[in-house]
Write the structure tokens for this entry.
Amino acid sequence: MMGKPDKALPTGWTTSPREALRVTNTGPIAQYDAASTPGYTGDKQAGTAALIERGAHLADLQEMLFANGRSRGHRSVLLVVQGMDTAGKGGIVRHVGGLVDPQGLAITGFGKPTPEELTHDFLWRIHRALPPAGKIGIFDRSHYEDVLPVRVHNLVPERVWSQRYDLITQFEREVVAAGTTVLKVALVVSREKQKQRLIDRLNDPTKYWKFDPSDVEERGFWEDYLEAYQTIFDRTDGDHAPWYLIGADRKWFSRLAVCELLIDALEGLNLGWPAATFDVEVERARVAAL
Ligand code: AMP
Ligand code: MG
């Protein structure tokens, strides 16, 4: 196994989240149990408590990344969040992103391309949203939409979308080479749980705004989406930009898992606190004399 040996596993985990959830170890998405918690033995109560405790650690690491960015460090982290409707992408942004200083985040949601975006190549808007040094970028949907609905509905001809897997791999390699750690999570919701969540939205006036009638039609393309996702994993997973498959029927688990993967990514940067750019003793004396 790659990486740091002998690193203690977080409490409740029997396998590191990075191994347990990596798409090369989970098997195909079509067979994935969306209610499973691979690698984790705790229940909802333990997992919810763990998110708070581990969130404090994530916040410390994020501050260190931010401090390095302020001191000419060039590192950043990009978390790509994909998943079918109701999988809880927004909840990841809110509940995991919400664990750290919002000033250290660069969050972008990608909806249907605007007329201006459509005049450019599909990676144009993605480039512009990449996190600067010191920040954690979170993409709520991403360039992968250009091989998801675009492929399922042939919004561009097959000869165009079929080239995008290689273009994406090349793009991500460049992003990583420039100093950004890329991790990609696919939230896997079951068909039954999606139906339940759609019903919940219709039964609660405070959730009407989340309901999109076109989501009902998209459900009819379930198998096509699974196939499109599987092609993404087969063609764009790599150690440079790994994909993780995370069950989303239990939201407490998907949030904890993403938190752990982010911690792992940040620890992997091996950062320290930036050294003083001034003489500490001299400054101490000057302040004492104020
Ligand atoms: P939401 O995330 O609920 O705001 O919905 C955003 C919508 O935009 C979803 O239906 C996405 O599938 C769609 N979308 C995002 N990116 C693209 C794209 N590149 N091409 C077509 N549809 C897209
Ligand atoms: Mg939607």
